[in-house]
Amino acid sequence: MSKLLSVKDRVLLGLAFLGDVLDEARLVGGLVSVKYQNLYGWVPPQYCKNDFYKAVSDLFKTQDIEKRTEKGEVCLVLTNQGKKRLVRRFPVVKFAQTKWDGMFTQVVFDIEEVARTIRDSLRQWLLALTFGRLQKSVYITPHNIAQDVAEFVEAHHLEEAVKVFRSKLVMGDPKELAGKVWKISRLNRKYQKLVEAWEKGKGLTGKDREELNRKLKSAFAEIVTIDPFLPKELLPNDWIGGEARRIIQSMK
Questions:
Q1: For residue 8, which of 51, 163, 177, 247 sits 20 to 30 Å off, Cα-Cα?
Q2: Of the residues 126, 142, 167, which one is the last residue of a structural domain?
Q3: Which H or E element spans position 27?
Q4: What is the pLDDT along the chain (252 residues), one digit of tens a residue?
Q5: Which residue blocks in 37-183 are alpha helix, DSSP H?
Q6: What's the pLDDT score for residue 32?
Q7: Residue 66 lies in a domain
Q8: DSSP for 117-151, written as a single string
Q9: How far from each other are the two terminal CA atoms of the chain, in whole angstroms?
Q10: One domain, residues 74 and 140
């Protein structure tokens, strides 16, 4: 499910997907001297550098990020608290490296019309957790996150209306199912456009290269917020999301 990305969101996503290493040395918010230019590239042009500096400064104050020196280079890294903040905001991030056990988590609910608000909240929560809609009141995900659902159900006293299962698909092709439920071909096209833009701009240098890199990082940040990070067993043979991520990570 797509979310409106704040500057802080982009800083955290940048650190998560770029290995925490920044480029150009600069004083940020009067706190510490850090390498920042590569991370600033995740912020769209409509945001000025002061917005970026303030976001970084605030994340230092809340202890979501910290400075670390590695091999003589000053870097910014996510703290454990920062990682938790990122996962709360974008639960899909924690599934990027998850190995699939062949099981699906399935949520089935029957909530009356008079409780429409809580029913809609449940649906939005499921979508944020990477669930896909199989039928009107049936949602599935390959990720083992039954406990996350249970916490929501218990907090809203929905134990009688919501059931959670873990099971394998007995009939049918899991990859084909995933393609339909999560509209993988549509998502793949978004990554394809990113890769094509990078290929087209290979010969660019200087400010033109910096501008293109910034646009691609911004586009990537938007895409990953709707990517359910399905295990490779459920992705099509022509999946290009991995290549797009490698391109973004190469922008040092």
A1: 247
A2: 167
A3: strand 25-28
A4: 445 678 888 878 777 776 533 333 233 333 333 345 566 667 776 677 778 778 888 888 889 888 777 666 666 778 888 888 887 777 767 776 667 899 999 999 998 877 889 889 999 889 888 899 999 899 999 998 888 888 888 998 889 999 999 999 988 899 999 999 999 999 999 999 999 999 999 889 988 988 898 889 888 888 888 888 899 999 999 999 989 988 987 875
A5: 37-40, 49-61, 80-89, 116-128, 146-155, 174-181
A6: 33
A7: yes
A8: HHHHHHHHHHHHTT-EEEETTEEEESS--HHHHHH
A9: 29
A10: no
Residue 176: inside a domain, yes or no? no
Q: Is residue 31 part of a domain?
A: yes
The 10 Å Cβ neighbour count of residue 30 is 7
Classify residue 18: in a domain, yes or no: yes
The domain boundary, picked from 51, 76, 94, lies at 94
The helix/strand/coil state of 67 is: strand
Q: Residue 111 belongs to what domain range?
A: 104-167
Number of residues assigned to the chain: 252
**How many domains does one find in the chain?**
3
Within 10 Å of residue 246's Cβ, how many Cβ atoms?
10
At residue 69, the 3 state secondary structure works out as strand
> b/e for 181-205, b at 16 or more Cβ within 10 A?
bbebeebbebbbebbeebeebeeee
Q: What is the DSSP letter of 5?
A: P
Q: What is the CATH number of the domain that holds 108?
A: 3.30.70.240
DSSP 170: -
Question: In whole angstroms, how large is the CA radius of gyration of the chain?
Answer: 20
> Do 80 and 124 lie in a common domain?
no
